[in-house]
Amino acid sequence: MNIAVFASHGGSNLQALIDAVSEHRIAARICAVISNNSDAQALERARQAGIPAYHLSTKTEGGDEALAAKLTDVLAAAAPDMIFLLGYMRMLPVEVLRRYRRRIFNIHPSLLPAYGGKGMYGIRVHEAVVAAGETRTGVTIHRVEERYDEGEIVAQTSLPVLAGDTAETLAARVLACEHRFLVDTVSRILHGEIPCGD
Asked: What is the pTM for the complete model shown?
């Protein structure tokens, strides 16, 4: 199966997928990596792995409508069976969401529905978890809909918030968990345990 990945920054989850594909732990091909950030390390990770990499944003395309059209064209050419948002900091255009309905997934660093929604990403999530005195947090993979973090949850795993955890120490442990859990969840999708598509 073909997987397209959207990422805005470092791309460590992308790297976890690249490694899993190259080591034959998942039977898939990463067919495109798309970023709205020209400096995203995710794009460099893709290029080093020989994966087509695209910097596409409202600045490169001249506006929202043109970006939606370009994304639609790039995805049509790449022919993904599924799409993963791995730290992508923009909402996908409605045209893309509808065309790939139930085949777009996002990874989020909390136990949704807690600590999700617009503006809740990256270190902000972990700061909120620590500030609230939570004893557990985790990773959620959900389908992407037209509202942030509100799609169907398809997989979730938890880990303890340790005494003395800061947002930074918690973020590091959650990210390591994300890498493993992402690969496990993609494998479950590939084996039909989690439906992909209608």
From this structure: 0.96
